[in-house]
Amino acid sequence: MDTTQLRINARRHLGPHFTRRDTWAGDFPVFVAGEGCHLLDTEGQRHLDGLSGLFCVNMGHGRSDIARAGAEQMGRLAYATNWGSAHPPAIEAATLIAELAPGDLGTTFFVNSGSEAVETAVKFARQYHVSQGQPQRTKIISREMAYHGTTLGALSLTQLPAIKAPFGPLLPGVRSVPNTLGYLGDCGPAAKLPSILAIESVIEEEGADTIAAIFAEPVQNGRGALVPPDGYWHALRALCDSHGILLVSDEVICSFGRLGHWFGEGITGVVPDMVTFAKGSTSGYAPLGGMIAREGLVQELFESSTGGVFSHGATWGGHPVSTAVAVANIEAMRREQVLDNVQALGPRLSESLHSLKAAHRCVKDVRGTGFFYAVELMADRFDDRELTHEESLTVLRTVLPESFRRTRVILRGDDRGATMIMVSPPLVADSDVLAELLHGLDEMLTDVEKVIQP
Ligand code: PLP
């Protein structure tokens, strides 16, 4: 089938996710193959995948070892549950994850996506508190502009008004608190940070003993790769400890090497009570998500008089093929020392992005760490002129999509609180791939400046 016909069939029969009607009506790319850090489309064009799919293809495309592990598992045992029984791939994956996760984060409940992982954490928090005689602890705190997923529970925690508006009423008792935008490095005592003081006020207003959990990402994606200031996570941990609140680190993007560490603790220095993960756990070769809980909490729930069972599950939870793929993916990450690659090249990538900022008046800020960055745009940094709403729409809907196509470097234009370009290459990218990415980005920024007058 030729590309035109594929697009016609897609428009008629395929429901696109988060895709505007005009994009779907246009010449959207149709990808047919992947090779390392590159994708091939139906027209034979090669594109650099500078976003690792959606922050997930950490080990790159087209790997026969990971594909083989999935195929072999499918041939051996395509399906069995983790309900009252188990199977080797899920046990192996959970054991590997326990080995890599910090502290006593040792029990993984597998699901199939990041949203489901967040749902699982919300439900575990609530049921845990019920099991400990505190059923009134149902409320959740999450941070402004954070994205925690699209299912109704996860969407309740998501603090992006535009994607929540059509779906209310959502979960009650979710409070939004400031994120750490504008604070980086040493900002004085963390307990005095406005973002921490705001959480304290919410806890006081709501009553500490009504709050089940605080959710935060180690580096927040929504609002553009917000790296926390020094001590922030220790202050979060202290607040949770003193009020009996569970601390959930949403690491759907940040785990499995994206920041140069297996888990967020590598940069936060803090062991949370639960970690949610998905994307990089399989590098996108199969759908998988999960919630890792501290073993002690799981024991307490299981052993409580009202507990004995975590009342949650899914047919595909811990699917044999997905967990076999996760094992192959994690073993490949270890063998090929991709975390070392991110730690070695991440600072150079950051430096180069800052050089692009110096060279382009349209760059307001560069944030991020590891292989995870946001380039925030404005009209003119030298004149301190922000983009107007119309200019931002032009950049995001016309200039960048055309630029991605022309440069054959795929990044992501992001409008969550600012106009941004997200950069998140596969963790196997070497310096040549990063140079290709940076060259493309340089051209994109020039394209923005051609259209947006100072
Ligand atoms: N949490 C975070 C931090 C995410 O970035 C995402 C997705 O990007 C999700 C949750 C939801 O994951 P999924 O799209 O797999 O449902």
List the helices and strands and how they pair.
Blueprint: H1 3-13, H2 21-25, E1 31-35, E2 38-41, E3 46-49, H3 52-55, H4 64-76, H5 88-100, E4 105-111, H6 114-131, E5 139-143, H7 152-157, H8 161-164, E6 174-177, H9 194-206, E7 211-216, H10 232-243, E8 246-250, H11 265-268, E9 274-277, E10 289-294, H12 295-303, H13 320-335, H14 338-359, E11 363-369, E12 372-377, H15 389-407, E13 409-410, E14 412-414, E15 420-423, H16 431-451
Parallel strand pairs: 3-13, 5-6, 5-7, 7-8, 8-9
Antiparallel strand pairs: 1-2, 2-3, 4-10, 9-10, 11-12, 12-15, 14-15
The structure holds pyridoxal-5'-phosphate.
Multimeric organization: single chain
Tell how many strands the DSSP assignment holds.
15
- What does the radius of gyration come to? 22 Å
Low-confidence stretches: none
Strand content: 15-25%
SSE class: alpha/beta
Silhouette: globular
Bound molecule types? pyridoxal-5'-phosphate
Helix content: 40-55%
The biggest beta sheet is recorded as: 7 strands, mixed
What is the terminal separation in angstroms? 46 Å
Number of helical stretches of at least 4 residues: 16
Average pLDDT, all residues:
97
Main sheet strand line-up: 4-10-9-8-7-5-6
Short account of what is shown:
This protein has 454 residues and is an alpha/beta fold. The chain is built from 16 helices and 15 strands.
What would you say this structure looks like, in words?
The chain is of the alpha/beta class and 454 residues long. 42% of the residues lie in helices and 16% in strands. It contains 16 helices and 15 strands. The strands form 3 sheets. A 7-stranded mixed beta sheet has the order 4-10-9-8-7-5-6, with helices on both faces. Strands 1-2-3-13 form a 4-stranded mixed beta sheet. A 4-stranded antiparallel beta sheet has the order 11-12-15-14, with helices on one face. Helix 5 (88-100) packs parallel to helix 13 (320-335), helix 14 runs parallel beside helix 16 and helix 15 packs across helix 16. The longest helix has 22 residues, at 338-359. The model has no long low-confidence stretch (mean pLDDT 97). Bound molecules: pyridoxal-5'-phosphate. Pyridoxal-5'-phosphate (PLP) is lined by residues 113-115, 118, 147-149, 217, 221, 250, 252-253, 278.
